Amino acid sequence: MKKKIISQSELGRVKRHYRIRKRLSGTKEVPRLIVHRSHNNIYVQLVDDVANHTLLSLSTNDKAFKKEFGANGGNVDGAKKVGAYIARESVKKGIQKIIFDRGGYLYHGRVKALADAAREAGLKF
Asked: Tens of pLDDT along 47-56?
């Protein structure tokens, strides 16, 4: 079986994420908002950890997102649009309060922009 080779910075991010995940757990009433970012896109999910169920997911790769906002996904403006969109969709589903899981990424740049946009659009965390 081949081992996957990852960089030192990615290894540090994974270790930070494990440390964070020890303390965070989402429920159906207060789900966990997971953020994952790549160089070109950003992905978010609302997860109920008790039932191991994804309640809502969105990325800058989704056709509905690209149709509404265009093709910019790997920058701060794209992250703001994703944050506002996920907040709007979760409020439609009756979810107003969440737990924010930054996925081991520093709370800076795209991750911070996404969180601020979600707060402005009505999510509480």
From this structure: 999 999 999 9
